[in-house]
Structures are given as C-alpha cells and as structure tokens.
C-alpha cells in the first residue's frame, strides 16, 4: 500500500496485549460458574412428603364434580394439575396430559381464576384429561399447595401425601419421569 | 413446501459459508491461490441463500402455515398481517435467522463492492465473516431449526397474545440486531487485518461505513427502547440500568469508541492496534449482551423465562470467536507496525482521550452488570443500580464532554490550546453564567448541575467547527459530526433537566378535587370504566390546565387484560415545548379516593430528540463518507481504464 | 508537550492502562458500597444494614397487616418469612398483584426506628411459567426482567 508508512517493527506493549484475553477468560470463567452452579433456582416444595392440605373446591364446570382433598386419598395415586385457560404453557402440556390420561392415570384439575366459558373453550380446543375440576377462584388453594404459578402438577399417593411437584409445563421428555413418580407413589 | 425450500436454502448457505472459510483460508497460502477467485462469488451467493431462507420464513408466517412448529407456537390466523410478519423474527429461531441473514447479506455486499483493500486482507476478512456465520448456522440447524414441521397440524396457532402486538415491539429488537450484526463486519475486517498485518488508512476507510451504520442503528434502537420503557412502565423513569438495557448500551459504547479511533486511523494512520482491538471488542460486546439476555444468567429470580442450554450454546460461540480473536490479537498486535506519531495536544490526542474515557465507562457498565454474578458466586444476592452507575459514569463522562468541546477544534498532529482558546471564550462564559444562575436558584444536586452547565457550553462549542468554513462546501461528514455532538448536548440537557427540575406529586383525591403539580393544575373529573378489544380499564378524566392556558383532558388508565389476566397502567403524557406532564392512575382507596401520581418533567423530551439528532448526524456522516468513497472509486476506475487503453 | 517520539506508544499505553485500571479499582470500591443487598426478614432482623444503605427486602405480606394511612397514598404492612416480621411503609402506586399473602420485594432502606422505608414495591409479576418455545426475549419480557431485577 502506498499509504502505509514504513516504520520500524517494535514489540510494544509486551504483556499488556494479553490483558484483553485475560479479562475475557475471567468473564467466561465467571459465567461458567454461574451457569454450572447447581440450580437452587427450582424451589422445591416444602410440602413434599406431607399430606395435601384440606380443601373443598366447587365444580368449575356444571357437569363435572369439584375437587375435595379427601377425593385424593382413595388408595390410588393421582396427578393434580393446576392450570388455567389463560395460561399459554398449559396448552403446551395438554398433549402430554392427554397421553397420561390415556395411559390410565387419574388426573384431577384445579383451575385457577377462570370462567366457565373460557374453561370450556380451552378444554374443547386442547383436550380434556380431567376426572374432576375444582374452581380455585381466588388462588387460595393454589397457594396452600405451595404453588406460585401455572401450570404445576403434583403426584399424590393413595394416602393423600404429596410425593412430587412438577413446576412449569410437562414436556414430552418429562412424561417418563412423571410415570416413574406415579409408580413410586403406588408402592 | 416453502418451509422445506427455506430449510434447504439454509443448509446450502451453511455449506457455502464452510466453502467460503476453506477457500478463503487456503487462498492465503501459496498453493491454494487458485481458490482465491471463488471467495467473493461464494460470499454473495451465501448471502442470497440466507435471504431466501428468511423470505421463506416470512412467507410461512404471512400465510400462517400452522404445520410449521414455529408458526403454530408464535402466530395466529387472526393476527393483523403486519404482526404476522413481525412474528417471524419475534421469537428465538426467527431472530437467529434474521441475524445470519443480515450477516450473510453484509458479507455479500462487502465481497461485491469492497475493492480498496489488498486482496489478501479481503480473503482473510471474508473467511473470518464465514467463520462467524458458520457458528450461527450450526446453532440454527442443530439447536433451533425455524422450519421444523409439526404433526399433526394444529387447527390454530398459539400466538394471539395481544400484549405482544405492539409496533414498537415488532421493530425495536431488529433495529438493535442490525447494529450488532453490523459490528460483526467490523470484527471480520479486524480479523482480516490481523491475519495479513495490513492495517492502514485504506483498511479504516473500508471499515468505517460499517461501523457508522451499526452505530446509527444502535443509537436509534437505544433511544427508542428508552422511550418505550418511559411511557410503558409508568414509573416516570427513562433508564433503569437494567441488564437488558446495559446489554444494548455496552456495544454502543464500544462502537462509539471505534467510530472515533477509526477516524484517526483513516485520517492520520495512527492508533492501529488499538482500532483493531476495538473492532474485536465491539462485536464481543454485542455477543456478550445477547448472551446475558438470552441465558438469563443475570435474572435468576425469573428462572423460567430463560433457557440455560441456549445460553450455553451462545457462550461456546462467544468463547471460540472472541477468545480466538483476542488470542490472535495478542499474538499479532505486537507486530503490527506502529502508526504515525502525534503530540498530546492534537486532534488525535483528544480522540485518544475520548477512547480511553469511553473504554473506562464501558468497563464500569460491564463490571456493574456482572457484579451480581460475582457476588452470587461468593454467596451474596445483590443488585446494582443508579447509586453505582450514575456517579461512576459521570466521573468519566464529564471530562470526556469537556474534551469533546475542545477536540474538534484542534488540528491534527500538533496544536496549542492557545490557538483555540479564543474561540472557547463564549462557551466558557455560558458555562459560568449557567453555573451562577443555578447557584442562585439553589437546590440542584451535583450531577444535574454539572450536566446542565456542560450541556449549555457544549451546545455552543459543538457548532464551532462550522465557523470559518463555507457552509455550502463543508463536507457532509463534518455536518454529521457537528449534529451528533450537538445532539449529545441536547440529550444531556434533557437528562439533567429531568433529574434536576422534575416535580412529582402523589395524592389521593376525590372526584372534583384539584391538585397542583409544578405549573399545572390537575382536576379529577371522575373515573369511568372503558373497554377495548381485549381489555377493560378504569380511566381517570383529568382536566389539566397549564398556567392560564385552556384546560385539556388527559386520561390515564389502569387496564386489565383477560387473556392472559394482567394489569397494566397506561400512563398519559401531555407534551408541551418545555416538558411533559406524566400522569398515572393508581387504585381506589377504601374511602373512595383515587391515587394519582403526577410528574411535571421540564424538557424531558430533549433526551430522545438529542438521541435522534445523534443518530441523524451519523446518517449524514455515512452519506458523506459513502459519497466520497464512491467518487474515489469511480475516479480510480477511470484512471485504470485510461491506463489500460493507453497500454493497448 | 510533544512526547519523545520513540516512546509514544508506550506512554500512551501506560496512560490508558493507568486510567482503565484506576476505573476498575474505583468500580470495585463503589460496588462494595453501592450494591444493594437482598435480605429476608430474619436476616434483616438479625443483622440490620446501616440505616441509609439501599437494600432489598423480600418476603410474604402478612395476612391482615395492610393499612392505608390517612393521606390515602401511604401504606403500612408487615413482611414476614415465618421466622421474623418487619414493618414496612411505602408511598406510591401499589402494584396490582400486591395483596396480603402474596410475595413481595421491597426496595428501600431500613429506618432508624426499625421500620423499613420502601421506595418501590415489586409484587411477583407473572405467574405464568413460560415454555422454551415462547421464550424469545421480547421487550415485553424485558419489561418483566426490569421489574424483577430492579
């Protein structure tokens, strides 16, 4: 290049030119620690191993029984699914719940802050795996179960004891895990 | 069918990127020189294929092809067309495809038009661009295929969330993306130059338009994002030092530094290694920002809205590209020949000062953003906010602005303060007068005080480079610089004025009550229910009156959406030339009184007007640079033609 | 003023390094003093922060503790975590999700009389878990992140 001025090549800088790389390495190390640190982010329910708190929920749909905590202690393990028609992830997990219901798992629903019409439309569109659906209109039962969001799913054993809490939607890869927990619960 | 076409185009583009990398790298060796010829055409075709894939994605979104999983998840047949189309990039896969498309197209344009650089540097640059692209293609094809089919086809899509149907939301993220990806071109140029060690003015001129364009998009994106947060959150603030905001600010700071250092390199052939490093750093900051936002590593409170896996993928790409580039830099920078020398008091000296200050600010923002991670690693939960960022930033912004007033007046190479001192008398007097006025007024805290007086002085000083010039013949680039610097002053004035003079009033009032905020009288006429397409709201009827002017109605709302159920407060803004009235409606108390939160914010709009001026200055400079580059290219081609014809 | 030509690169480098390292040290010092720590009620009772220090307090709003004061815009309530209770005062627009029994993060400082003065209340914002497919970081979510990390 004609514009280049020939100047003497010097090794200026020395260690300083490694500084950016060193800082970057420190950054990568830092975020790796952050990413790899065992996630205590999933809040494990303190209710696991404890009996379901007592509640009686009125029917959410006229043609379907509501949910009573005593219904859960009938000797068989149950899934209790906390959901709502306005919750997008609940739609994502609908096929998995349908598959579980098809496999013969009794699934009880707690619909949180919903209306009959919206709920009916949701079930029509996304399938209806529920035996009973209780209407938790103020979210109190949801809170008493230690759930802070929808969807959440509980595995309850035949004595009405909470054995497992699944936070967030059930994805296809979670189905075996859920079945495992149900099997454990039936023992 | 279209989806398969898109996927095929994407695979082909990825394959061509690999070919571009291999042929570019081999083309640099004596044996592979024969391959060098195909690199440019391959880069162009690669860009076009990526564009094809992106167009296919837009098409499947536009016709709502629900057999495509991404469409089913993110779109809905009832959406207005513009939101269907915007939905194509309003999700992870689509935005990544947009990223590689812009990157591929930019590489294609570089390959097509850039003829100033030595061919070897071009080969290395295009190989570098391909190397970066390949990572993102792999990310798309392996971990986030946008064209994945869904079986059985759902009857309806999932994405009719009305909250997300917002034009600002549709176009704000891609604006920032264009900025990020523009910096990837600068990155590739830096790599190319490092490989061949050919760093000089020609290199700087080739790189500059890309840096400028990226910087314009970043500036506009940040300004728009800030205004969005201001009116949408209803908290009265316009910048929250939140990680998501910092993620866009950091590339901007690096790009601003790069923009100035590349000017030194272009004009004076100095700051060679430093410019190269900034080229690497600017794109690093884009990727770091994307990583921090995507991985959710900084928002552990909200563990569910993020995806550590995808974050890890970006981290791997980050480690490879940035780690690789910085290693190359460390190995090569020492052997990049030193540029021209200059005295401390000179245009170069001022620009170096600007660069060091910007780098320091960048470091402070990065450090503050990452500190919660450091603290968490040591077992403490902390958050870092304005009490850290504001004074620490000001510590470096203030000296930088002082130099900003002087720098453009200095000559290249060597100058004396005495020569330019005379011209700065008026700005200095303005500063002094402003300081006196504010002191007499009293009650203004230190940072806004400094901001206000500096803004006044700077506004004048920024126009000085136009003196003694014939305005008609002043190059567009100089106009651009003046306008951008003036914009800095304007924006600074807005920020300081907002902080110094804002009047806030929090009251509970009955219908019929009148309250006062600054020069405004606000009367609550009543609160009425209103309904929209997917929400109901309580709307306050506020009759507001500015001094003696006629009363105007403003109507802040407290809105309830039902799918999903969510409450938002819709603030009401009333803009006057000298500020904005900002009203938020709160809840109703047991005694029937309504909560109102009112602000009078003098000159607050100048913040974003200044931002737009800065971006517009960039546009002027870009037009000027590209025009003069084109002229130079045409002139050179003519000489070449003439030589050729003479040779015959 | 002109530097010895021979050493220009080194001098510039040295100046830049000094400034940047200085900035780093300053930042480290400022962060130690300005970062706002997160407390739960039992921690803040056991080891209260300095009175003017900005901190965040997170816990549950105790049932039956919420009172509105006469001015209509100031509320007082108690945040508890099962082990300890902290009285809190706040003036401002109350977030819609803020109710008794819900979780809350209060930003502010501990007053000298043992009452926490909140400048800002963050109620748990979104109870809808978001699946991976919908996780694109849109500005709407950014808003949520803003809300949750402040």
From TrEMBL, chain A:
GO cellular component: outer membrane-bounded periplasmic space
Keyword list, A-Z: Cytochrome c-type biogenesis, Disulfide bond, Membrane, Redox-active center, Transmembrane, Transmembrane helix
Transmembrane domains' residue ranges: 15-36
Subcellular location per the Swiss-Prot or TrEMBL entry: Cell envelope
Boundaries of every Thioredoxin domain copy: 46-184
Molecular function per GO: antioxidant activity; disulfide oxidoreductase activity
PROSITE patterns with a match to the protein in the record: THIOREDOXIN_1, THIOREDOXIN_2
GO terms of biological process kind: cytochrome complex assembly
InterPro entries according to UniProt: AhpC/TSA, Periplasmic_diS_OxRdtase_DsbE, Thioredoxin-like_sf, Thioredoxin_CS, Thioredoxin_domain, Thioredoxin_ResA/DsbE_sf
Designated name of the protein: Thiol:disulfide interchange protein
Species this protein is from: Novosphingobium endophyticum
Automatic annotation (TrEMBL), chain B:
Residue ranges annotated for the Cytochrome c assembly protein domain, each copy included: 89-295
GO biological process: cytochrome complex assembly
All copies of domain Cytochrome c-type biogenesis protein CcmF C-terminal, residue ranges: 315-625
GO molecular function, one term: heme transmembrane transporter activity
Record localization: Cell inner membrane
InterPro entries, sorted: CcmF_C, Cyt_c_assembly, Cyt_c_biogenesis, Cyt_c_biogenesis_CcmF
This protein's UniProt keywords: Cell inner membrane, Cell membrane, Cytochrome c-type biogenesis, Membrane, Transmembrane, Transmembrane helix
Metal-binding found in the keyword field: no
Main localization (coarse): membrane
Domain of life (superkingdom): Bacteria
TM spans (from-to): 43-63, 96-113, 122-143, 177-197, 209-229, 249-267, 274-293, 313-331, 352-374, 394-412, 424-441, 447-464, 476-495, 603-623
GO CC list: plasma membrane
Topology within the bilayer: Multi-pass membrane protein
Protein family: Belongs to the CcmF/CycK/Ccl1/NrfE/CcsA family.
Known role: Required for the biogenesis of c-type cytochromes. Possible subunit of a heme lyase.
The protein's name: Cytochrome c-type biogenesis protein CycK
Originating organism: Novosphingobium endophyticum
UniProtKB/TrEMBL annotation, chain C:
UniProt topological domain (Extracellular) ranges: 31-150
Record topological domains on the Cytoplasmic side: 1-9
Localization of this protein: Cell membrane; Membrane
Binding site for heme: 125, 129
MF-aspect GO terms: heme binding; metal ion binding
Gene Ontology terms describing biological process: cytochrome complex assembly; protein-heme linkage
A Gene Ontology term for the protein's cellular component: plasma membrane
Statement: the UniProt record of this protein carries the keyword Cytoplasm: no
Source organism per UniProt: Novosphingobium endophyticum
Record-given protein name: Cytochrome c-type biogenesis protein CcmE
Described purpose of this protein according to its UniProt entry: Heme chaperone required for the biogenesis of c-type cytochromes. Transiently binds heme delivered by CcmC and transfers the heme to apo-cytochromes in a process facilitated by CcmF and CcmH.
Family as reported in the entry's similarity comment: Belongs to the CcmE/CycJ family.
Keywords noted in UniProt: Cell membrane, Cytochrome c-type biogenesis, Heme, Iron, Membrane, Metal-binding, Signal-anchor, Transmembrane, Transmembrane helix
Entry membrane topology: Single-pass type II membrane protein
Alphabetized InterPro entries for the sequence: CcmE, CcmE-like_sf, NA-bd_OB-fold
């Amino acid at each position: 290049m004609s514009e280049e001025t020939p100047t003497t090549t010097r090794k200026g800088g020395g260690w300083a030119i490694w500084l950016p790389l060193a800082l970057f390495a420190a950054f990568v190390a830092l975020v790796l620690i952050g990413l790899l640190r065992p996630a205590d982010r999933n809040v494990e329910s303190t209710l696991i191993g404890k009996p379901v708190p007592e509640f009686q929920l009125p029917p959410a749909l006229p043609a379907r029984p509501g949910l009573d905590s005593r219904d859960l202690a009938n000797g068989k393990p149950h899934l209790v699914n906390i959901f709502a028609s306005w919750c997008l992830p609940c739609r994502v997990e609908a096929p998995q719940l349908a598959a579980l219901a098809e496999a013969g798992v009794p699934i009880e629903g707690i619909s949180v802050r919903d209306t009959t019409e919206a709920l009916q439309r949701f079930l029509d569109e996304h399938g209806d795996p529920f035996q009973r659906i209780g209407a938790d209109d103020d979210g109190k039962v949801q809170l008493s179960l230690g759930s802070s969001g929808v969807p959440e799913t509980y595995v309850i054993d035949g004595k009405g004891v909470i054995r497992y809490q699944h936070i967030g939607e059930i994805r296809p890869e979670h189905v075996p895990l859920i079945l495992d927990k149900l099997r454990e619960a039936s023992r | 069918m279209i989806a398969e076409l898109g996927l095929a185009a994407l695979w082909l583009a990825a394959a061509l990127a690999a070919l571009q990398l291999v042929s570019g790298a081999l083309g640099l060796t004596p044996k592979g020189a024969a391959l060098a010829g195909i690199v440019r055409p391959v880069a162009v075709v690669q860009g076009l294929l990526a564009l094809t894939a992106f167009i296919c994605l837009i098409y499947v979104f536009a016709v709502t092809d629900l057999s495509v999983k991404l469409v089913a998840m993110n779109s809905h047949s009832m959406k207005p067309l513009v939101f269907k189309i915007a939905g194509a990039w309003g999700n992870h896969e689509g935005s990544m495809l947009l990223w590689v498309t812009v990157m591929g197209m930019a590489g294609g344009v570089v390959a097509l038009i850039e003829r100033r650089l030595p061919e070897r540097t071009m080969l290395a640059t295009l190989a570098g661009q391909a190397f970066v692209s390949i990572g993102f293609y792999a990310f798309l094809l392996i971990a986030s295929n946008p064209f994945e089919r869904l079986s059985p086809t759902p009857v309806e899509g999932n994405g009719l969330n009305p909250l997300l149907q917002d034009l600002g939301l549709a176009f704000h993220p891609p604006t920032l993306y264009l900025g990020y990806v523009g910096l990837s071109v600068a990155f590739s140029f830096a790599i190319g130059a490092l490989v061949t060690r050919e760093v000089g003015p020609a290199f700087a001129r080739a790189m500059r338009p890309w840096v400028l364009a990226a910087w314009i998009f970043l500036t506009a994106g940040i300004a728009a994002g800030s205004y969005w947060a201001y009116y949408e959150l209803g908290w009265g603030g316009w910048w929250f030092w939140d990680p998501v905001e910092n993620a866009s600010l950091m590339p901007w700071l690096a790009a601003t530094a790069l923009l100035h250092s590349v000017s030194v390199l272009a004009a004076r052939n100095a700051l060679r290694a430093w410019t190269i490093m900034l080229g690497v750093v600017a794109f690093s900051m884009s990727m770091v920002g994307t990583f921090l936002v995507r991985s959710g590593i900084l928002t552990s409170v909200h563990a569910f809205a993020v995806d550590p896996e995808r974050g890890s993928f970006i981290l791997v790409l980050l480690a490879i590209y940035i780690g690789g580039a910085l290693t190359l830099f460390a190995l090569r920078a020492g052997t990049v020949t030193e540029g021209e020398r200059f005295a401390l008091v000179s245009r170069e000296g001022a620009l170096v000062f600007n660069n060091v200050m910007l780098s320091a600010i960048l470091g402070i923002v990065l450090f503050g953003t990452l500190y919660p991670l450091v603290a968490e690693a040591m077992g403490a939960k902390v958050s870092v906010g304005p009490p850290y960022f504001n004074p620490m930033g000001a510590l470096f912004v203030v000296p930088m602005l002082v130099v900003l007033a002087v720098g453009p007046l200095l000559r290249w190479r060597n100058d004396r303060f005495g020569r330019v001192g005379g011209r700065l008398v008026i700005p200095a007097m303005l500063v002094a007068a402003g300081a006196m006025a504010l002191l007499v007024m009293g009650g203004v805290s230190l940072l806004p005080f400094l901001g206000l007086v500096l803004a006044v002085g700077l506004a004048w000083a920024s126009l000085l480079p136009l003196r003694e010039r014939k305005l008609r013949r002043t190059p567009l680039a100089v106009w651009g610089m003046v306008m951008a610097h003036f914009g800095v002053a304007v924006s600074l004035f807005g920020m300081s004025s907002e902080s110094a003079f804002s009047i806030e009033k929090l009251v509970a009032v009955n219908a019929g009550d009148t309250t006062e905020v600054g020069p405004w009288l606000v009367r609550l006429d009543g609160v009425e229910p209103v309904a929209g397409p997917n929400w109901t709201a309580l709307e306050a009827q506020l009759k507001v009156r500015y001094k003696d002017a006629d009363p105007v109605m403003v109507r802040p709302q407290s809105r309830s959406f039902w799918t999903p159920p969510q409450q938002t407060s819709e603030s009401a803004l009333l803009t006057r030339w000298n500020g904005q009235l900002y009203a938020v409606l709160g809840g109703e108390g047991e005694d029937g009184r309504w909560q109102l939160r009112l602000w009078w914010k003098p000159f607050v709009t100048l913040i974003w007007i200044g931002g737009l001026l800065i971006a517009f200055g960039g546009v002027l400079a870009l037009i000027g640079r590209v025009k003069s580059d084109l002229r130079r290219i045409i002139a050179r081609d003519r000489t070449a033609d003439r030589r050729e014809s003479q040779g015959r | 003023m002109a530097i010895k030509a021979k050493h220009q690169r080194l001098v510039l480098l040295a100046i830049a390094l000094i400034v940047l390292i200085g900035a780093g040290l300053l930042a480290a010092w400022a962060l130690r003093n300005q970062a706002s720590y997160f407390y739960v009620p039992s921690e803040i009772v056991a080891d209260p922060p300095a009175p003017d220090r900005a901190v965040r307090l997170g816990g549950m709003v105790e049932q039956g503790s919420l009172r509105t004061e006469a001015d209509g815009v100031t509320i007082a309530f108690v945040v508890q975590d099962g082990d300890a209770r902290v009285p809190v005062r706040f003036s401002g627009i109350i977030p819609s999700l803020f109710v008794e029994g819900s979780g809350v993060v209060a930003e502010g400082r501990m007053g000298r009389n043992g009452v926490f003065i909140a400048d800002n209340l963050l109620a748990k914002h979104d109870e809808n878990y978001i699946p991976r497919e919908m996780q694109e970081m849109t500005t709407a979510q950014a808003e949520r992140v803003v809300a949750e990390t402040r």
